[in-house]
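Hi C.,

You asked whether I'd gotten around to modeling the 122-residue construct. I have! Everything is below, sequence then structure, no commentary in between.
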Amino acid sequence: MELLTKNFLWMRTLGSTPMLEAENRQRFPERVRGVAEKVRSLDASSVVGVATAGIGAGMATPEAARQRRGIAVAGGTRVGAEKGKDTKEDSELDKVCQGVVELATEKLHGNIVQVTKKNLFC
């Protein structure tokens, strides 16, 4: 009986996929819409400044963009001439980017798990 219980638990664990559960399938598009709204609400100048700062150099990260605009970041505080509004816009952009990265990572992780299960058991 113990062997059957262990096998059942393993089958149930390996057979479950949180990404495909009804609650997650309904919630994920809502989360994507929320992040998309935040992206739309950003000031266009802050997005353009970060996006164009890394073009040609292969550096599209917000930190690289700040450095190319002449804003050094040392220990989490800004050093340089630009302060104030730009700091707020950059932090908002960083938060939105982090949200996008979290959603993409979650989806990618779910896809990797599915492919791994398929390759192992099929």
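If it helps when you're writing up: Residues 85-121 form the longest helix (37 residues).

Thanks,
B.
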